[in-house]
Amino acid sequence: MLAGGIAHDFNNLLMAILGNLDIALTDLPTTHPARAGIEQAIHASHHATDLTRQMLAYSGKGHVILDSLNLNTLVRDNTDIFRAAIARTITLTLEITPDIPSIIADPGQVQQVVMNLLTNASEAIGAKTGVITLVTGVRACDSAYLQRSRLEEKSAPGRYVFVEVTDNGCGMDAGTLAKMFDPFFTTKFTGRGLGMSAVLGILQGHHGAIIIDSAVDQGTSIRVLFPACPDVAPAEPVSAPTDTQPAATSAVAVPPCILVIDDEEMIRSICIRLLTRHGFAAVGAADGEEAIRLCQASAQDFACVLLDLTMPNMDGVATFGEIKRLHPDLPVILCSGYTEQEINSRFSEHKPDDFLQKPYRPHELHATITRVLERRQAAALKPG
């Protein structure tokens, strides 16, 4: 909770920082001496954004790009990278079980999990010669087996695809096993102690499990499990409809007006400035209650709503529901430092029309609003 909360708040701050830096860079002539410093600040802010993503991954709320993934393919495609991650004195043996089911997962995060397991195994063997065995497979897991998972929330029984990494290194005693997922805990002289914490968060985000067997001087075996896809191939993700006709502008007498709802004044301010620069009009609301009053008074003036999720008094979920009750056709784009997958779980019947994860860049804001407005226009022109 602490990691997720800090990452969310930092994303809000980075939104204001990056937004103002982007505007400053746009306003400066290409030869201005201040540009180099601003570009360095933008670069540093991107590094800070990467850190918040790592914190969200640890909290199990990281950015997940779900796709159909075959673990055998991932292992084969990354074998050279995996071998480079371990010491040259160590032999990496692969035992690939053929014809395993696919999983629905983020390939980058799964690769990170396997890489962390291999790195830890290599460090457990140390400078001596040793063997690491990487195994893929599938098994039916009952509740008794899944109770062994080191995740606090146990997964439901069913069929799981796994990757298992076994080493003949130093092994772990009960005390080390109890602490191995603690943030910043490490038995190494160097290292941040975040590798296994990230593994834990990624598996939580994928509703997986992790089983560990280890003993001092007898090596370690770590098995990570992901829910297997049903035998029926998963449906292709539905792409947002696009309007192939150019947007008509002759009927629009004034720029589209965007309602920006956010309790952070600096976020409202930077959003309004960015929108104005992209040719929109914009009105700000400090909370859900003020936004509802504006919608009741002049909803027809709004083409779209940018809605923050976390607000006092009336949060984004309640505000969204009331806006849709008053004006079902008014598009709402949800904005949050959390991820779209985490947010969607809070909406039951109706989902937001689109999503922007903070901190977003000016071109992302413009592209998302344009996409939503084009969809609305296409729906209005559709017969019936």
Sum up the structure in keywords.
384 residues; alpha/beta; Heat Shock Protein 90; Rossmann fold; 3 domains; 5-stranded mixed sheet; 5-stranded parallel sheet; 12 strands; 19% strand; elongated
Secondary structure layout:
Layout: H1 2-27, H2 34-58, E1 67-69, H3 71-77, H4 79-84, E2 90-95, E3 103-105, H5 107-125, E4 130-141, H6 143-146, E5 158-167, H7 174-179, H8 195-205, E6 209-214, E7 220-227, E8 257-261, H9 265-277, E9 281-285, H10 288-298, E10 302-308, H11 316-326, E11 332-336, H12 340-344, E12 354-357, H13 362-381
Parallel strand pairs: 2-4, 8-9, 8-10, 10-11, 11-12
Antiparallel strand pairs: 1-3, 4-5, 5-7, 6-7
Category from helices, strands and their pairing: alpha/beta
Strand-and-helix sequence, N→C? HHEHHEEHEHEHHEEEHEHEHEHEH
User: What would CATH call the homologous superfamily of the largest domain?
Assistant: Histidine kinase-like ATPase, C-terminal domain
Architecture of the largest domain, CATH level 2? Answer: 2-Layer Sandwich
| Net shape | elongated
**Radius of gyration computed on alpha carbons:** 25 Å
CATH topology of the largest domain: Heat Shock Protein 90
Mean pLDDT: 82
